[in-house]
Write a structure and sequence with these properties.
By secondary structure, the chain is α+β, with helices and mostly antiparallel strands. The chain has four helices and three strands.
Length: about 80
């Protein structure tokens, strides 16, 4: 019976997929930062996220980050000079 449970679990993943409650793509975050008056290019934001070791989740072609984490990285680079 244990084998059936495992097969069913593989076919039907958990109802709460791995990810962030405040997930955004870099493109979405760049647009949000632009609205604040503190724009940053997407390549720069990706570089900052990678340097900070931020976790990301891939959903098909979409790579998502926690917006809260991106806000912290953005603030660190924009205001801690």
């Amino acid at each position: 019976m244990g084998g059936r449970t495992m097969a069913i679990a593989a076919l039907h993943p958990s109802p709460t997929p791995r990810g962030f409650k405040d997930a955004v793509t870099v493109k979405e975050a760049v647009a949000l930062f632009a609205e604040t008056g503190y724009p940053v290019p997407d390549t720069t934001l990706r570089t900052w996220a990678k340097a900070a070791g931020l976790e990301s989740v891939r959903r098909g072609q979409r790579v998502e980050y926690s917006y809260s984490d991106l806000l912290e990285v953005h603030a660190r680079h924009m205001f801690d000079d």
